[in-house]
């Protein structure tokens, strides 16, 4: 693929690949994780993938932003403050870069994950200033949602 394609179609065949959890992160059990990359941005800053995992308890340290949407099974996610969240099909959660959670997969979990490498704080400041100026000058919609989803 050259990257010139505007729309990229894939066949329905999904072959999950081994995606071992860092052994130092495993707390209990022998969880087996797999993934399948659905898409990757041209600049490699964003990836969408399917991920599944069998029973086990493990740490997860986030060096990127990850939005998770649970498709099947369940997981209990424990924040560093001890608060636990039970997630099942249809539930979603955002983990910001720099966060940590303990995952307890009770039997099996399958999710869609959207992973994005965040921009440095200095660049984000400039982006926010430019967006605000564009809105003030009426060069951009008032909503932060992409134009195709804002109803404009």
Write structural notes for this entry.
The chain has 152 residues and is mostly beta strands. Helices cover 11% and strands 45% of the residues. It has one helix and eight strands. It has one helix at 121-136; strands at 17-18, 26-28, 33-40, 46-61, 65-79, 84-87, 92-95, 100-116. Strands 1, 2, 3, 4, 5, 6, 7 and 8 form an eight-stranded antiparallel beta sheet that branches. The chain is globular and about 55 Å long. It starts with 16 loop residues before the first strand and ends in a 16-residue tail after the last helix. The mean pLDDT is 88.
Quick tags:
about 150 residues; mainly beta; eight-stranded antiparallel sheet
Task: Report the oligomer.
Answer: single chain
Q: What's the SSE pattern?
A: EEEEEEEEH
- Spans of at least 5 consecutive residues with low confidence: none
Give the overall average pLDDT. 88
DSSP helical segment count: 1
- Beta-strand portion reads over 45%
- Radius of gyration, CA atoms, in whole angstroms: 18 Å
Morphology:
globular
Q: Which structural category do the helix and sheet elements fall into?
A: mainly beta
What share of residues is helical?
Answer: 10-25%
- How widely separated are the two ends? 33 Å
Q: How many strand elements?
A: 8
The main pleated sheet reads as:
8 strands, antiparallel
